[in-house]
Amino acid sequence: MNNSEEPRWELDDELKTLSITFPTDPPVAFVLDADSLSKLIDSAGQIRAEMPPPHQETWKGGQMVNAVLDPRWYSEPDALLGESLLHIRDPRFGWLHYALPRESARALGILLVHQADDVPDDEHEQPRKN
Questions:
Q1: Residues 6 or more apart in contact with residue 44 via CB below 8 angstroms
Q2: Digit-coded pLDDT (tens) for 42-89
Q3: pTM, to two decimals
Q4: Count of CB atoms within 10 A of residue 38's CB?
Q5: Residue 14: Cβ-neighbour burial (10 angstroms; 0-12, 13-18, 19+)
Q6: Other CB atoms within 10 Å distance of the CB of residue 84
Q7: How far is it, in rounded angstroms, from Cα 96 to Cα 65?
């Protein structure tokens, strides 16, 4: 593969398939429908979680991000452990699922209420970094 060239990503005119063409000799292309692409993204994410270097453990506030505006979400208690299960729908990745121990769920809930009420930072504890 020629390292100076990147794979070419093309969505078809009907928005039904993605072609990824690799700059090999001869070129190799994968054609994926939405379901296959979702499976690829999920599998790649599982593998990435095992690769060094890991993603940063902590987040520095104030960074510019490409945030999803008002995503759909759902929360329910875990049937076995009683933890809060938080489900958030990301249009890029589908439903993402998080299990929050009670202490983390409580801290997140308090922080969100303070932010929603627009309480100045000096009137409540600093954001919890989990």
A1: none
A2: 999 999 999 999 999 999 999 999 999 999 999 999 999 889 999 999
A3: 0.79
A4: 13
A5: exposed
A6: 19
A7: 18
